[in-house]
Specification:
The protein has 124 residues and is of the alpha+beta class. It has one domain: OB fold (Dihydrolipoamide Acetyltransferase, E2P). 19% of the residues lie in helices and 31% in strands. It is built from four helices and nine strands, in the order E-E-E-H-E-E-E-E-E-H-H-E-H. It has a six-stranded antiparallel sheet. Strands 4-6-7 form a three-stranded antiparallel sheet.
């Protein structure tokens, strides 16, 4: 099976992505497929500080409960509140309507983030 891996994003090995332009963060197409139907998402609040590699939140599906990890350190500037009422958006559109938070980050990108090619290799 082939998964969508947009070239303009950076990825964590734990399947989160970040858009380096907007600071928008979510989980990958591969991750949402592995989880199955997402039924609940717990996210930080606006103004919360995140630590790269630290906990970002929790995602619950019919199969499992998984921790989400922050791809970068920074401050949460927006939260996708639509996910609280419609967590299935993560399954339907993981790189669009299913985004989770936006982060204002100091460093352009963390060294432990993967390029699209590196991430695609990891999930093959």
């Amino acid at each position: 099976m082939s998964f969508e891996v947009p070239d303009d994003l950076h990825y964590r090995e734990s399947h989160e992505w970040i858009d380096p332009e907007s600071g928008r963060v979510g989980i990958t197409d591969f991750a949402q497929d592995e989880l199955g139907d997402v039924v609940f998402v717990e996210l930080p609040g606006e103004g919360d500080a995140l630590e790269a590699g630290g906990e970002l939140g929790v995602i619950e599906s019919i199969k499992a409960v998984s921790d989400l990890y922050a791809p970068v350190s920074g401050e949460v500037t927006a939260v996708n509140e639509a996910l609280f009422d419609a967590p299935e958006l993560v399954n339907e559109d993981p790189f669009g309507e299913g985004w989770m938070v936006e982060v204002e980050f100091a460093d352009a990108a963390s060294d432990d983030l993967l390029s699209a090619d590196e991430y695609a290799e990891q999930i093959e």
